[in-house]
Amino acid sequence: MARDLAIDLGTANTLVYMKGRGIVLNEPSVIALNRQTGEVLATGHEAWHMIGRTPGYIVAVRPLRGGAITDFDVTERMIRLLLQRVGVSRFTRPKVVICVPSAITEVERRAVTDAARRAGAADAQLIEQPMAAAIGAQLPIDEPVGNMVIDIGGGTSETAVISLGGIVALEAVRVGSFDIDNAIQNYVRREHGIAIGERTAEEIKVAIGSAAQTPDEVEAEVSGRDLMMGLPKTVVLTPEEIRYAIDDVVSQIVQSVVRCLAKAPAELAQDFLTRGMYLVGGGGLLRGLAERIETETQVPVRMSQMPLEAVVLGAGHCIENYDALKRMFMGQRR
Amino acid sequence: MVYVLLAVVIVCVVVFAALATSRRTPASNDSVADFQRHLSALSPEARRHTVENYPVVTSSTEETEELDDGA
After folding, report:
1. Amino acid B70: pLDDT
2. How confident is the model at residue B55 (pLDDT cuts 50, 70, 90)?
3. Family per UniProt (chain A) (predicted)?
4. Which residues numbered 125-164 in A keep a CB inside 8 Å of some CB on B?
């Protein structure tokens, strides 16, 4: 008998929770394929190391963008491999709960459930990421109080107000930490005339990226390819430059939080001021982001204890209490 | 033959009576109980088990940071 699973199928990372066991897999949502034969050569960490460094016949891709499947066949193969790695075989077909962005379309939802069923799941149910995040972040969502959660992922940023086990207000934008990486790549290309890869841009973000000024700021040396000469070149980037480069993306995220606050019933406004908002997701780890949101909304912002695992833990709780929490699933609410 | 028919009728009556009794509970009570079950499954005590009882594998971000070659 297969153990049921919860999967956080994120644009950046995929996490799998197994019923009765906990989180059993956590790795980048990347798959490396042989371009000619279509064979899968690597997945997860191994494939992530190949991004931008592959010979012509290998392609390392992220099959999800903005939280949605961009390549159905590749996603199905990635899910099939994930299920195999956690012990699912042709004869053991588990129930699966998959976390998806709340803003995905009906077609995109069907693509996810079809991919999971074809990959070996007996039943596939979907749950909105901010709802799963609120469950996993241990917010008191069973009480009649306003709980606000901001989930900033690789491709989407979602803000939700949750009370009495249901979503009261929701705001989602298809902007996330990959857009921050892209903004850094574009800035370095435009202002310094060098081309850098996706992974280098991510490393710059982790090293010196910030959404607001922080006390211990340092500069960073970055190497790339000179666009004029084609030769390797090194430049020095300052935190101010990176803040300027990513400001547009950060502003979009902050504005979506403001819109969600405006959508929430007035009765819950008091709760936000006293309880604050909770940040989850890898994007929430950007330095100064909590302070920037706090400054612009005048509402306290707190970081969740397990920002990277909150979503899959919430979905895992739903798989542990499948019958009691059925109404959490998309399309099951009465 | 009569006794057999009588026995069948009695069994049928008992089954119908049991079914009717079980369905007599108003639907509103079912929905209240269902909602309460839903909320109690979301209580912090119920969730603590899921979050605290199981180990978490090393996050990929930590590994990524370790590999950071000083951008």
Report:
1. 37
2. low
3. Belongs to the FtsA/MreB family.
4. 135-136, 138, 140-142, 164
Sort strands A95-100 and A123-128 into parallel, antiparallel or unpaired: parallel
CA distance B54 to chain A (A): 5
pLDDT at A249 over 70: yes
**A–B interface: beta-carbon pairs under 8 A:** 91
Q: Which of A86-100, A210-224, A299-313, B12-26 has the lowest mean pLDDT?
A: B12-26
- Nearest Cα to A312, choosing from B63, B54, B65, B36? B54
The tens digit of pLDDT for each residue in A138-170 reads 899 999 999 999 999 999 999 999 999 999 999
Say if the Cβ atoms of B40 and A324 lie within 8 Å.
Answer: yes
Our CA dihedral for B49, A94, A318, A66, rounded to 10 degrees, sits at: 120
Given an 8 Å threshold on Cβ–Cβ distance, is A26 in contact with B59? yes
A24 and B51 within 8 Å at the Cβ level: the answer is no
Q: Is residue B19 exposed (0-12), middle (13-18) or buried (19+ Cβ within 10 Å)? A: exposed
CA separation, residue A280 to residues A29, A296, A304 (Å): 18, 18, 6
**Calpha distance A73→A213 (Å, rounded):** 43
Place of tokens 């978490």: B56
CA distance, residue A85 to nearest chain B CA (Å): 14
At A236-246, the pLDDT tens digits run: 999 999 999 99
Report CA-CA distances (Å) from A63 to A135, A145, A208, A222.
27, 38, 28, 28
| Cα–Cα separations (whole angstroms), residue A233 to A52, A191, A222, A224, B70 | 18, 14, 8, 6, 15
Q: Is B26 on the interface with A (CB under 8 A)?
A: no
pLDDT of residue A126: 94
Reported pTM: 0.84
Gap between the Cα atoms of A133 and A306, Å rounded: 10
How far from the centroid of its chain's Cα atoms is residue A122's Cα?
25
